[in-house]
Design a protein that fits this description.
There is one protein chain. The protein is an alpha+beta fold. The chain has a domain at about 15-165. It has helices at about 25-35, 85-100, 110-115, 115-125, 125-230, 240-250, 260-275, and strands at about 15, 45-50, 55-65, 75-80. Strands 1-2-3-4 form a four-stranded antiparallel sheet. Keywords: Coiled coil.
């Protein structure tokens, strides 16, 4: 038996089922084939239906337990995606059947069966035709299930698209309303800014006028002080007057005569001696 190409984990929210083996279809054919080669238990189907981007989807995980006698046969495990549980299980069983029946060059039993298949068809035409008809009926059933799923999926997608369009239209209308409110707020801000600029200009003009009035008042005050200083020029400071009087007094006091020098005195004496 061919080994599976991929092994995937089993999620906790999958719906466990061994499928209805009494109903004709690929799950029943797969179980008949597996039971004929010694498998004790039927395959297990674990499926979960969900919606992805508005499209109904289904995921089926199929597991075939290891063969009790042929330990070299690896457990068959695969995963198939579809639209509903019914068609996805059929697709999973068909894929498992083709995977299990694929030629395996290392198995002599399989080579013997495969090489003698034409002889078996010739020897048992009724059984071969019956098996072929069952497979074709199962395939037709699978196509019918897919045909039923596709219109429902298309209708679901149309409803989802309509709902999405309605939601988008409502979102656009809400955004337009918010944009209008922002524009009104912006206009109010512009008006407020213009008003503040006008108030600032008025305040600056008033400040300049006040500075001019203050400068004029300072000039008038300085002029008045200058006039008052010129009229009282004859008045003197008492301290300055006192200093001047002291200097005049010192100048009016006569300085004492200088004493005669010794040479002068001696000359005077000599003159007296001459007399």
């Amino acid at each position: 038996m061919a080994a599976p190409t991929q092994v995937v984990s089993i999620a906790a929210d999958f719906a466990h089922s061994d499928c209805r083996l009494e109903r004709e279809g690929f799950p029943r054919i797969l179980w008949i084939v597996l039971g004929a080669v010694g498998y004790p238990t039927p395959p297990q189907y674990l499926g979960r239906e969900y919606v992805e981007r508005g499209v109904p989807r289904c995921r089926v995980h199929l597991v075939v337990a290891p063969h009790p006698l042929h330990l070299e046969w690896q457990p068959l495990e695969l995963e198939v995606f579809g639209y509903r549980l019914a068609d996805t299980r059929e697709s999973a069983a068909q894929r498992a059947l083709t995977t299990f029946c694929a030629p395996w060059v290392d198995d002599p039993d399989w080579l013997l069966r495969f090489q003698s298949s034409q002889a078996l068809v010739a020897a048992m035409p009724t059984e071969s035709a019956y098996t072929f008809v069952r497979c074709m009926k199962a395939y037709a059933r699978l196509q019918g299930l897919l045909g039923e799923a596709l219109p429902g999926m298309a209708e679901r997608m149309a409803e989802s698209s309509h709902t999405t369009k309605t939601d988008k239209d409502a979102q656009i209308a809400d955004l337009e309303r918010q944009l209008a409110e922002l524009q009104v707020a912006r206009d109010a801000g512009v008006d407020r800014e213009a008003l503040l600029e006008a108030q600032l200009e008025d305040a600056q003009w008033e400040l300049g006028h006040a500075n001019e009035m203050l400068a004029l008042a300072d000039a008038q005050f300085a002029q008045m002080q200058g006039q008052n200083g010129g009229g009282n020029g004859e008045d003197e400071d008492p301290e300055e007057a006192e200093d001047v009087s002291e200097m005049d007094t010192e100048e009016n006091i006569p300085s004492p005569d200088r004493p005669p020098s010794p040479a002068g005195s001696e000359a005077s004496v000599n003159n007296l001696d001459d007399y």
